[in-house]
Amino acid sequence: MPKPTPLSGFPELLPAARVVEREVIASLSRTFELHGFANIETRVVEPLDRLAKGGEIDKEIYVLRRLQAGEGEGDSGLGLHFDLTVPFARYVLEHAGHLEFPFRRFQIQPAWRGERPQEGRYRQFTQADVDIVGRDELPFHHDVEVMRVMVDALDALPLPALSFQFNNRKLIQGFYRGLGLPDLTTAIRTIDKLDKLPADEVAALLVRDAGATPEQARRCLELATIRVPDTTFVDAVRDLGVEDELLDEGLAELAAVVEGCGAEERRHVTVEANLRIARGLDYYTGTVVEIFMAGYERLKSVGGGGRYDALASDGRTTYPGVGVSFGVSRSLIPLISDGVLSGSRPVPSVVLVAVTDEDSRGDADAIATALRAGGVPCEVSPSAAKFGKQIRYAERRGIPYVWFGAEVKDIRSGAQVAADPATWQPPAEDLRPAIITNTEENHQ
Amino acid sequence: MPKPTPLSGFPELLPAARVVEREVIASLSRTFELHGFANIETRVVEPLDRLAKGGEIDKEIYVLRRLQAGEGEGDSGLGLHFDLTVPFARYVLEHAGHLEFPFRRFQIQPAWRGERPQEGRYRQFTQADVDIVGRDELPFHHDVEVMRVMVDALDALPLPALSFQFNNRKLIQGFYRGLGLPDLTTAIRTIDKLDKLPADEVAALLVRDAGATPEQARRCLELATIRVPDTTFVDAVRDLGVEDELLDEGLAELAAVVEGCGAEERRHVTVEANLRIARGLDYYTGTVVEIFMAGYERLKSVGGGGRYDALASDGRTTYPGVGVSFGVSRSLIPLISDGVLSGSRPVPSVVLVAVTDEDSRGDADAIATALRAGGVPCEVSPSAAKFGKQIRYAERRGIPYVWFGAEVKDIRSGAQVAADPATWQPPAEDLRPAIITNTEENHQ
User: Fold this and answer.
1) How does residue A55 score in pLDDT terms, banded at 50, 70 and 90?
2) Which portions of this protein are annotated as coiled-coil regions (chains A, B) (predicted)?
């Protein structure tokens, strides 16, 4: 069979790059668990009617068919999930009787979309989602909590500067209602186009599609230009002179989120209120957020989420939720491709145990066993070649130490010392492959 | 939308059961890394011609089709992988120029088969594979090594007794050749039916299908009855009086594997030479192994693998490999269903920080932040209900400690002591959810 060629949209990582992804996933998991979130995994398939929204499927879904299906058997009726929210909502409904609410979960899995691949958009991509779901009710303070968890989680990663841009659907809806706009839903969808269209075109669309007067459209755009790193947006909105109860509620909620997430000094995460963030999806009902990565604005957001008062419902019980998703593939693959992030070595081994001759391979195995008992990852040389060749074997894999009989050599410095495999430990920074950040790379 | 019902063959774990699977995967990964194996993940899809064997697809494969495919666009030509060997072989060929050989990798991912679900057989199931692949050549000692790695890895898990049953294709082929059997491949496939058919039927099939004489068939069965926990099989085979060079090689290899894997005393893994193990698959060329779990013989093997002299080939270069696969879902899901394994609690939180009233939620948040800085997973009570209700919230989730102001209470014993959240640590056994083994359960 000929040499295979890559499949567009299905990126695969070499071992050193996989170190980056794996360490990122481990770090995210650690933060989520410190905050008491349980991990779950859902099956990768959902019935097609679950993947539909309002009866219609607007996503590029992959449908499954059994290759050996009988005549006329057709599709399985199952599709690969395109995000982790739909399967999570289904999981909550299906297993509600066995879950304790509020239910706090994180989920890090691939999802699939059959769309045209481009940088940051893949046909298979990994997401990390964290959500809190209540039964019948879910106090607002969980909005602040779950957003702060993601701020904590992303601040712990070696990423470029990240900006959490918050808004609140109640704020927008209340403002539009207070203005007297006739069609709030269309207005929100239209404002959401501000990142693609110039302001005057959006204003024209507000008049044409959402039934706004030119004056109303102007004030909608005024609202959308407010963007501050603190709670001063409250006064800025008040100054626009619109009165509405829902607006008041939205202002208070957004202020609490911005304050709660922005209070601490962070390494590279900043927080803003950005009143043009709407998120096109219908089901958000309060807090909304989009996350942007400095130097990678071309990817659009690398994460987002918000509050949905009806994440799931079985007709009798409604499950409100709040959550946020981070695009692991969407952010990491461009950073890896650009050389901004790399793995310090492609193998876990800290030590290569040299073999003098094949008859003494058992001695080398015994040294390796002793090292492993002390928690030191190592491997035994595959051949009893000349020592120079064995050292080059280690060098090519980035393995920092070679063990010869009763001595260990740091092949980077050349320093060689007597050592006992039962007690020897490498410096902590050598123990595991790590993520290397190359800030010299031009990642424009 | 109505309450969803489970999809047959796509098992999903509740959070406490997921603790079991997650800890098992973490433990396997730890052992593989201690032995210097790098982790990779492959995309879940392969072109259909890669999933075919000798031009024919004999597995129940799920094919993908874009739901929004245009008229006449048909299938994508991609199928979900049905194991991790096919994608790994393709990964090696595709990325060979960027890999160092021998290449040592482990891979823990789901695979899919559209077959009829039954206990231990699912449509989506997770496997853990560990392999070593060489370019052009791969010394035999890697057979011993990779099998010992899996013995180490499974011995570290809290599973029922496991038996590694080894054989060697060279031994079987050499013996059959030495006997003068005309059709070795058919003979091996026929002997492989010994776990389904009685010995006299297999003998009749050897005569009918493999062209054996009744005397040859009798001696094939004699070979297949040899099963010992040590290297005494060598003399037992010699006593059958067949002479062949390949047989000698196979005997020496099998003796080295059994000795290498069986030398150490293990907690619950035992090693045997079982000369009826053949593994039906064609590509094995030396060492073969199947792994069985005590009390769960009805699942057939829970793992297996072996040596393949041509794991992959692009026409110019051939990549021999040796590896072994463990069925994570196949073994764990029955054990979880039977109550043999369970998670100690469904949440990572060790501590619930109580909230006196909503105005002081910030104080509770500060305590939680201090605990997390010390690596203690915790969550803040979702409501400022009466303390008794907050304690019940913790109890229902198996959270062992509740924090009240300046004191921490072990709600299992009732003991309450003054504590500083900046320095307090739980006993090590409470820090993370763990796997509980219930050996009282009847798992017949």
Assistant:
1) low
2) none
Measured CA to CA, the distance from residue A288 to residue A303 in angstroms comes to 11
The reply to whether residue B42 touches residue A2, judged by beta carbons under 8 angstroms, is no
Which CATH architecture describes the domain B15-170+216-342? 2-Layer Sandwich (3.30)
Q: Is the preceding peptide bond at A102 cis, omega within 30 degrees of 0?
A: yes
Model confidence at B444, pLDDT cuts 50, 70, 90, reads very low
Cβ distance A10 to B114 less than 8 Å, yes or no, reads no
Is A67 in Cβ contact with B61 (below 8 Å)?
yes
| CA–CA gap between residue B149 and residue A380 (Å, rounded) | 13
Instruction: Please report the ipTM that was assigned to this predicted complex.
Output: 0.95
Overall size of chain B counted in residues: 444
SS (H, E, C) chain A: CCCCCCCCCCCCCCHHHHHHHHHHHHHHHHHHHHCCCEECCCCCEEEHHHHCECCECCCCCEEEEECCCCCCCCCCCEEECCCCHHHHHHHHHHHHHHCCCCEEEEEEEEEECCCCCECCECCEEEEEEEEEECCCCCCCHHHHHHHHHHHHHHHCCCCCCEEEEEEEHHHHHHHHHHHCCCCHHHHHHHHHHHHCCCHHHHHHHHHHHHCCCHHHHHHHHHHHCCEECCCCHHHHHHCCCCCCHHHHHHHHHHHHHHHHHHCCCCCCEEEEEECCCCCCCCCCCCEEEEEEECCCHHHCCCEEEEEEEEEEECCCCEEEEEEEEEEHHHHHHHHHHCCCEEECCCCCCCEEECCCCHHHHHHHHHHHHHHHHCCCCEEECCCCCCHHHHHHHHHHHCCCEEEECCEEEECCCCCEEECCCCCCCCCHHHHCCCEEECCCCCCC
CB burial class (10 A; 0-12, 13-18, 19+) of residue B245? exposed
Q: Do B15-170+216-342 and B351-437 show the same overall fold?
A: no
How far does B370 lie from chain A, in Å, by closest CA? 11
d(CA A10, CA A15): 16
pLDDT, one tens digit per residue, over A383-442 is 999 999 999 999 999 999 999 999 999 999 999 999 999 999 999 999 999 999 987 544
Q: Which one of B36, B60, B93 has the shortest CB-CB distance to A348?
A: B36
Give domain B351-437's CATH number out of 3.90.1150.10, 1.10.260.40, 3.60.20.10, 3.40.50.800.
3.40.50.800
With beta carbons under 8 A apart, name residues in chain B contacting A315. Answer: 1-2
Minimal CA–CA distance to A250: which of A212, A306, A203? A306
**Count of other CB atoms within 10 angstroms of residue A442:** 8
pLDDT bucket at A47, cuts 50 / 70 / 90? very high
Whether B53 shows a pLDDT value over 80: the answer reads no
**Please, which pLDDT band fits residue A196 given cuts at 50, 70 and 90?**
confident
Torsion on CA atoms A146, A152, A158, A159, rounded to nearest 10: 50
| Domain boundaries defined on chain B | 15-170+216-342, 351-437
The answer to whether the CB atoms of A347 and B43 lie below 8 A apart is no
Alpha carbon B309 to chain centroid distance?
22
pLDDT confidence tier of residue B87, bands split at 50, 70 and 90: very high
Work out the mean pLDDT of chain A and round it to a whole number: 94
DSSP β-ladder status, B124-133 and B78-80 = unpaired
Cross-chain CB nearest to A98 (options B14, B22, B62):
B14
B44/A110 Cβ within 8 A: yes
Selecting from B35, B67, B98 the residue whose C-beta is nearest the C-beta of A61 gives B67
Per-residue pLDDT tens digits for B347-386: 999 999 999 999 999 999 999 999 999 999 999 999 999 9
Our CA-based measurement puts residue A19 at a distance from the nearest CA of chain B, in whole angstroms, of 8
